Amino acid sequence: MDHFELLRELSGQFGVSGFEGEVREWISNQIRSWTDDLEVDALGNLMARINPGRDFVLMLDAHMDEIGIMVSHVEESGFLRFAPIGGWDPRVFPAQQVEVRSREGKRYRGVMGASPPHIQTPEEQKQALKVEDLFIDVGAKSREEVAGWGIGTGSPGTLHYPFQRIGMDRAMGKALDDRVGCAVLMRCLDYFSKDRPDFTLVANFAVGEEVGLRGAKTAAYQIKPDVALVIEGTVGADTPGIPAHKCPARLGKGPALSVADQSIIVNPSFVAFLEHSAESLKIPWQHKIPLAGSTDAGAIHLSRKGVLTGIVSVPCRYIHSPSSVVDLKDLDHTISLVKEVVRGARKIKAHRP
Ligand SMILES: [Zn+2]
Question: Fewer CB within 10 Å of terminal CB in the chain, N or C?
Fold first, then answer.
């Protein structure tokens, strides 16, 4: 599988926070032969180990979960009311295509409906639609019909379009935050299953990041890492009308190295290590502008006695929308950088400025 195919598979898997079973199953099947030990904890984190039981533990983390919706109420008429799961801008919702998952795991397609402009007052047209004004139309004619499909209060859903290539080497689809990070972890497991490090390498495919860094918290507690590296899809905002000082990261400019976000201030020696690693590979890299967003690093670095934790991200435009865009070269360069970090992991030391 090339990077595009791998991302297409990852993007297409269902994995709304709290409902990561499908994406976890797919990743497990892909990585099983590259790992010595696969474990799923009570929250649903998937932990893949190479060389378990050594004196030094490096944890790589990417989250499997994606933002989505949850059915909150089914109208008599068969329309679904819903609550957002994760950090949505509700203005994205109207007229988007949706997939709602039934109790049996079957997906039902639908559309986010709202009242048409023709019947709105001029006052209403000026206001952004709120979630409570919206509903999902899955083509059902009654509450009973919806119930018969196994859909009801608590059913999860995603905004979903087919994964596509745009331009020469860019890919567009849902959930690239953080399936792009999952892709990096999978490439590393494949590589280090053959070229083994002299320590324990644990790749954690985390659950529940989008609802508050939940999975990474329990995973770090169990893994007991000496050093951790989080791989994320981050805000690429190099688009018209956004000034440079407000643009967290740019597409095509290589992996984005975090110095700080809202959940962590990265130890400067770890940032310097990442910079030197990227320089030694002669790949493009960029700093991510602080302090946009939170990452699993926020939970991991506060585990036990504290964990030295860094963050590398693949820039992702239109993040938290069903049509996010990444540059496949950025993905490739991020894989190279993370491999280099794994090779040198024992050399990463905390420096307290
Ligand atoms: Zn993310």
Answer: C
Give 50-77 pLDDT, tens digit per residue: 999 999 999 999 999 999 999 999 999 9
pLDDT at 119 over 90: no
Mention every residue, 6+ apart, whose C-beta is less than 8 A from residue 29.
none
Strands 156-159 and 68-74, bridge-based pairing: antiparallel
Q: How far is the CA of 66 from the centre of ligand 1 (A)?
A: 8
Q: For residue 118, report the distance from its CA to the centre of ligand 1, in Å.
A: 38
Stated pTM of the model: 0.97
For 250, phi and psi rounded to 5 degrees? -120, 140
* Rounded distance from Cα 176 to ligand 1 centre (Å): 8
Residues serving a catalytic function are 209
Helices 176-194 + 328-343 axis angle, to 10: 50
Backbone angles phi, psi at 252, to 5 degrees: 80, 0
Query: For residues 35-51, b (16+ Cβ closer than 10 Å) or e, as one string?
Result: beeebbbebbbbbbbbb
Q: Are strands 227-236 and 57-63 parallel, antiparallel or unpaired?
A: parallel
Using CB atoms within 10 Å of the CB of residue 261, give its burial: 0 to 12 exposed, 13 to 18 middle, 19+ buried.
buried
Nearest CA-CA partner of 20 in 217, 229, 215, 188: 215
